[in-house]
Amino acid sequence: TVKAVIFDLDGVLVDTAVYHFQAWHRLAEGLGYSFSLVDNEQLKGVSRIESLELILKWAGAKISDAEKADLLSLKNKWYLELIEQLSPDHLLSGSLDLLEKLQKKGIKIALGSASKNAMGILEKTGIISYFDALIDGNVVQLSKPNPAVFLKGAEALGIEPACCLVLEDAQAGIDAARAAGMQVIGIGQAEHLNGADLVVADLGALVDKF
Ligand code: B16
Ligand code: MG
Question: Angle at CA 159, nearest 5°, toward 157 and 160?
């Protein structure tokens, strides 16, 4: 049985994955690398610094740590500009219905996101009050597929991992949930979500399961 649901943020609850893509695309352009949607798939759920390391590798660019730090703050500046107008309209289909349903059923709700911008996004979209525990990229340094972000969520809720269900849109997140010994449902296209117990198009498809 499921006693807690741990939500990924970008690409599951909120439509921010497209803004990460735009900001990385702009950064890669400056390195002379043409960053594709296929490349972007590999960055989903992956921390900011590890994402940059991958792009530098693809671009064949070698730069100093100081230059890396500059690029990271530039990427985040562009990303923050893109999400400045974020509102409840940017919640993905079914997000509110599912959060409401879980709360009504007494199922605990946690966030398990790699993002350091998670709190601002939850506030702008008006859903922060649904969460019993908030674990984000400021709390956990180890990036998905490491299970730390989800294990911390379970611990904060006081629920054993086997009774937690993770909802994820990224392969790295599916792998992290499995490594944590949790159930996991993929949100999106099955081809990018190997190892999920089930894959659905959006959260709306899950409302009647609880
Ligand atoms: P930030 P999630 C992840 O969020 C994104 O999928 C990933 O693209 C991003 O690089 C990472 O957060 C770090 O985000 O730059 O805002 O700290 O999907 O785990 O909610
Ligand atoms: Mg995600």
Answer: 140
The answer to whether residue 8 is catalytic is yes
- As a whole number of angstroms, the distance between CA 201 and CA 208 comes to 14
- What pTM was computed for the model? 0.95
Does ipTM exceed 0.90?
yes
Q: Do 169 and 17 form a contact (C-beta atoms < 8 A)?
A: yes
192 CA → ligand 2 middle, Å: 12
Q: What is the pLDDT of residues 96-131, one digit of tens each?
A: 999 999 999 999 999 999 999 999 999 999 999 999
User: What amino acid is encoded at 8 in this protein?
Assistant: D
Ligand 2: centre distance to CA 42 (Å): 11
* Interval 40-78: pLDDT, tens: 999 999 999 999 999 999 999 999 999 999 999 999 999
- For residue 146, CA distances in Å to 60, 152, 181 come to 26, 11, 12
Q: Which of 8, 39, 136, 175 is catalytic?
A: 8
| CB-ligand 1 contact for 114 (6 Å cutoff) | yes
pLDDT of amino acid 192: 87
